[in-house]
Specification:
The chain has about 475 residues and is α/β, with parallel strands linked by helices. It has one domain: Amidase signature (AS) enzymes, CATH 3.90.1300. Helix content is about 40%, strand content about 15%. It has 16 helices and eleven strands. Helix 4 links the parallel strand 2 and strand 3. Helix 7 runs antiparallel to helix 16. The longest helix has 22 residues. It is globular, with a radius of gyration of 21 Å. It comes from Candidatus Yonathbacteria bacterium RIFCSPLOWO2_01_FULL_43_27. It is an enzyme of class 6 (ligase). Heterotrimer of A, B and C subunits. One of its GO terms (cellular component) is glutamyl-tRNA(Gln) amidotransferase complex. It catalyses: L-glutamyl-tRNA(Gln) + L-glutamine + ATP + H2O = L-glutaminyl-tRNA(Gln) + L-glutamate + ADP + phosphate + H(+).
Length: about 475
């Protein structure tokens, strides 16, 4: 009997082209799982108008013009535009906003014949690490419904882990793909900044945001990444293909900043799993080398200055006048105050205030200016390390998935969950989280993940080392 929860994109494609299953049968099977797992609150909406998409995909398969993604049911994070569909960024502010155009990635996938079956829950405007900040309620982890799925792309990770999609898209500003991928036991890729267009993505922090795939296997992640990458003239940060210095080098040397990895706050079980996985990588022929990256320690501080500053700027447009949530006040100023005060959630307001503060005339140089300078130091240090090693490895997260409500009253503890992931976004390099095992927690088997980091445009190296880890974990 077909196990939809374990079915990969590659396996589904083979079933479709061999006519052992129709697109309609595949989509219906996945949608049934989506409806059966609605208690996770991972989907905000399951689309009911996809009949024409299914027919078009089946025709492409029947006439031999299909691709690996034709007829494959995928899910989309609620901040990626699909023409005619609501894209609320899980915020009251955009609760009724319908996209007037397709995001670059949406169009690419729809052209491939993908069936987008729904939009997934997320932290409001992608601000959070647990998907508890959504205006439409928290998402639960399929492995333990008392725990978070991670964030901000927690809905996209949860639907995949539950078998309610064969792949999904998320956005990653400081770990928002990789952290939920680790918490939910799936693969998550944050591509090199500029390889995947941000056109049609509701912006959080423009120099950090990057769209990327969730998948059940590294091979599937590679398939989705190949489909959504490419130059987009509508995005000024999109890097032309000719300028992408890709490498076909076979990664053999893995650098590990052990001093950083073994720091305070890392769960001993996470560290044990990480070190055991590295030993297995050694037995598979990889060299593991200790590297020194002292600037990594400043990554979190730099991130939580740069990111709120860009949030403050990007979210200034949501004023309740042109579009979005509006609340009438006694005058124009009260219109602004009440519309933004009620339209934005607590975490969004917190980051807007923090960003406005660090950009203010009295503190710009002391905070934002210095953070930009340290960002350049981190970029330089990382580039130097990549002359000595091929790949850098860390745990994806310092702990397994935590309980719902455990960290909502302590934002600093929540922010510390990003300690291993934020340097990647600050420097713009690609990284992938690959499942590395489980830990037992109160009777639940909670997934863990390893993060591999590569030089700019070297996603191929990530896929190769990720597939090696997958093989090692399974065998």
């Amino acid at each position: 009997m077909l196990n939809i929860k374990e079915l990969t994109i590659t396996e589904a494609h083979n079933l479709l082209v061999s006519k052992k299953m129709s697109v309609r049968e595949l989509v219906e099977a996945v949608v049934n799982v989506a409806r059966e797992t609605q208690d996770l609150n991972a989907y905000l909406e399951i689309f009911d108008d996809i009949k024409d998409d299914i027919e078009r995909a089946q025709n492409k398969i029947d006439d031999g013009t299909s691709t690996l993604l034709t007829g494959i049911p995928l899910a989309m994070k609620d901040n990626i535009l699909i023409k005619g569909k609501i894209a609320s960024a899980s915020s009251k502010m955009l609760e009724q906003y319908r996209a007037s155009y397709d995001a670059f990635v949406s169009k690419k996938l729809l052209d491939e014949g993908v069936i987008v079956i729904g939009r997934t829950n997320m932290d409001e405007f992608a601000m959070g690490g647990s998907t508890e900040n959504s205006a439409f309620g928290a998402t639960k982890n399929p492995h333990d419904k008392t725990r978070v799925p991670g964030g901000s792309s927690g809905g996209s990770a949860a639907v995949l882990a539950a078998g309610a999609a064969l792949g999904s898209l998320g956005s990653d500003t400081g770990g928002s793909i990789r952290q939920p991928a680790a918490f939910c036991g799936v693969v998550g890729l944050k591509p090199t900044y500029g390889t995947v267009s941000r056109s049609g993505l509701v912006a959080m922090a423009s120099s950090l945001d990057q769209i990327g795939p969730f998948a059940k296997t590294v091979e599937d992640a590679e398939i989705i990444f190949t489909a959504i990458s490419g130059h987009d003239p509508m995005d000024s940060t999109s890097v032309p293909t000719a300028q992408r210095k890709e490498s076909d080098k076979k990664p053999k040397v893995i650098g590990v900043p052990f001093n950083f990895v073994r720091g305070e706050g890392v769960d001993p079980r996470v560290l044990k799993n990480f070190e055991e996985s590295l030993e297995k990588m050694k037995s598979a022929g990889y060299e593991v080398r200790d590297v020194s990256l002292p600037s990594l320690a400043y990554g979190l501080a730099v991130y939580y200055i740069l990111m709120p500053a860009e949030v403050s700027s990007n979210l200034a447009r949501f004023d309740g006048v042109r579009y979005g949530y509006h609340k009438d006040g006694a005058n124009l100023l009260e219109d602004y105050l009440q519309s933004r005060g009620e339209g934005f959630g607590r975490e969004v307001r917190r980051r807007i205030l923090l960003g406005t503060y660090v950009l203010s005339s009295g503190y710009y140089d002391a905070y934002y200016g210095r953070a930009c300078a340290v960002r350049e130091i981190l970029r330089r240090d990382l580039a130097h390390i990549f002359t000595e090693v091929d790949i850098i490895a860390t745990p994806t997260t310092p702990t397994p998935a935590f309980k719902l409500g455990e960290k909502t009253s302590d934002p600093l503890q929540m922010y510390l969950a990003d300690i291993f992931t934020v340097p990647v976004n600050i420097t713009g390099v690609p990284a992938i989280s690959v499942p590395s095992g489980f830990v037992d927690e109160e009777g639940s088997q909670l997934p863990l993940g390893i993060q591999f980091i590569a030089p700019h445009f070297c996603e191929k190296m990530l896929f190769e080392v990720g597939k090696a880890l997958e093989y090692i974990v399974k065998n």
